[in-house]
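Q: Predict the assembly, please.
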Amino acid sequence: MGLPAHAAFIIAAYGATVLVVMGLIAWVATDYRTQKRVLADLDARGLGRKTG
Amino acid sequence: MIVQERPMALVQLANPSRFLAFVGRVLPWLVLATLIAFAVGIVLVLMAPDDYQQGATVKIMFVHVPAAWLASLIWAVMSVAALGTLVWRHPLADVAAKTAAPIGAAFTFLCLFAGSMWGRPMWGTYWVWDARLTSVLVMFLMYLGLIALWNTVEDPTRAGRAAAILTLVGAIDLPIIKFSVDWWNTLHQGTSVFRLAGPSIYPTILAPLLVMAFAFTLLFVTLHLAAMRNEILRRRVRTLRLLQAQGA
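A: Predicted assembly structure:
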């Protein structure tokens, strides 16, 4: 069974979808780790707040 | 006066600390629901038959249409948040709007790209300046403009107010996108799902489309709540650094 006609266009559309979704997940996950690390650093220097 | 306490009422979520606790509780369940929805959607997409005219290229619809749906939905969410910023000055409204914008831009780009990949084999061109495509491109540029605004103005409150006004002005593009295929003669096809006469798509293709749209929507809610949590943490960092600078 060969590839359907215009397979390259279908693969490009789904490939872009995977890249965009993975990019958004990576952005959110990386940003969360960064902010938690900075807050932990500030807390360690006695600048953190006790507001949860 | 006796104030009746309701667990996690909407007004309580206005408190950023309570909102963070709420996100911590619901996020794992949202991730699980999103994964299940995508798993079901992908199985249905693989089982969906080819279109009698378009062949297998109809499968591009299962990512193009949900991305287009999210592009408009996210701007609508940002518009409600803009009202929250300008009218009610809700502490989380600006956070919600600011964090929705990059997600909206990403899905609008995906809508345009997937549509282009669908257009080339079906229309013979990647792009045409018709009303639907152009109005979506305008929305994409407005998303980028808002992101630039938030990143240019350092004070989040000032940036939030200016962005809220621009968001509400930009909301005029929503009905233009929706009705562009009715108001003008476009190469883009007319409405085929949300019609008064009912969907014009055959059920074996409509079912995976609706499940994928639901999965994409769950993905947006999950990403948005996670991004809002990040933004609240970022603003805490900013406040602490300002306090540190004032104390130095």
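The two ends of chain A are 58 Å apart (CA to CA). The longest helix of chain A spans residues 7-44.
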